[in-house]
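User: Before I run my own analysis I want an independent prediction to cross-check against. Here's the chain; please return only the structure tokens and, at the end, one sentence I can use as a sanity check.
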Amino acid sequence: MANKLEVSFNSPQCGWMSIGESEFHTTTAHTPHTRALAELLNGLSSFLESRVQRDEFEVDWSRNPEEYKLFFRRWETTVHFHVVEYPPSEQPTEGEIVFTHHGQVNDVSAAFYQTFAQLYEDRETDEFEFNWRQPFPLEEFRRFENALENYGR
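Assistant: Structure tokens:
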């Protein structure tokens, strides 16, 4: 039985991702990358909409002073997702893989959809724009929601 991917983003003070009993926890920088959420939504949408066998994208994720990159690679209907941590340094360094997961495109996308839907639902109560220092990426979220709904049709 495959491990189920669970994803949760709270305000920039906390974010976590888990797979079965293995978990990746990280805080988010006080000023996150301004396009990280939109890039994540666009990348996942492209996986769902794509008719090519292979696709990939990456998203920068900050947690001062460390930096992360979220790497996504799709081969046919499987997504390989891993998180690489880069230590604070003025010189480019090789990172360390700190989290990995693979699963079906629709399952991985659904895990991310659940947390984005929760962010959207709570955006006013949790003061999304104040905490994330950016508006909620509504256009990208709607595209992703539509792509997930129509996946495989």
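Sanity check: The longest strand covers residues 54-63.
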